[in-house]
Amino acid sequence: MRALSKSLRRYDGELEINHQMSPGTQAVPEGAVQRNATYTCSHCQAVCVKGKQWVSENHYCPKCDHHICAGCMIRSKTDLTHRPFIALIEGVGAGKEIILTDL
Questions:
Q1: H/E/C letters for each residue in 74-98?
Q2: What number of H helices and E strands is found in the chain?
Q3: Residues near 15 by beta carbon (within 8 Å), at least 6 away in sequence
Q4: What are phi and psi of 57, to 5 degrees?
Q5: Please, where are the H alpha helices in 4-49?
Q6: Which residues lie below 8 Å from residue 11, measured CB to CB, with a gap of 6+?
Q7: How far apart are CA 83 and CA 56, in angstroms?
Q8: How far apart are CA 24 and CA 18, in angstroms?
Q9: Which of 4-8, 34-38, 85-89 has the highest mean pLDDT?
């Protein structure tokens, strides 16, 4: 099992849901504070919440050494073309034609 490196942890963020002064919801009751770790998918820039069932090996792209979302993970297994978001930005900056359905 691959250990989560410090280089990947630096991209993590945190989502805080604070219901200390509100009636709350089913997920976060009144008076509670919930904190969840997040990460940004390097392929599509979606911010994803790491749930209790989250496993870093399942959402990892070895080609760019970053976490990716479940949708991009599925896409990477069916499409052998590697398309991180930074490549899209660099392509636009270089004047290349970009087909958005290729993301």
A1: HHHHHCCCCCCHHHHHHHHHCCCCC
A2: 3, 5
A3: 35, 36, 37, 38, 49
A4: -65, -30
A5: 6-9
A6: 39, 40, 66, 67
A7: 20
A8: 9
A9: 34-38
Q: Which residue has tokens 């660099």?
A: 90
Task: At 18, list the tokens.
Answer: 């604070």
Give, in degrees to the nearest 5, the angle at Cα 103 between 4 and 65.
Answer: 20
Which residues, including other chains, have CB under 8 Å from residue 20's CB and lie 6 or more apart? 31, 32, 33
Q: Which amino acid is at 22?
A: S
CA–CA distance, 83 with 93 (Å, rounded to integer): 16
Structure tokens at 77: 């297994």
Q: Which residues pair with 61 in a beta bridge?
A: 66
> pTM here?
0.66
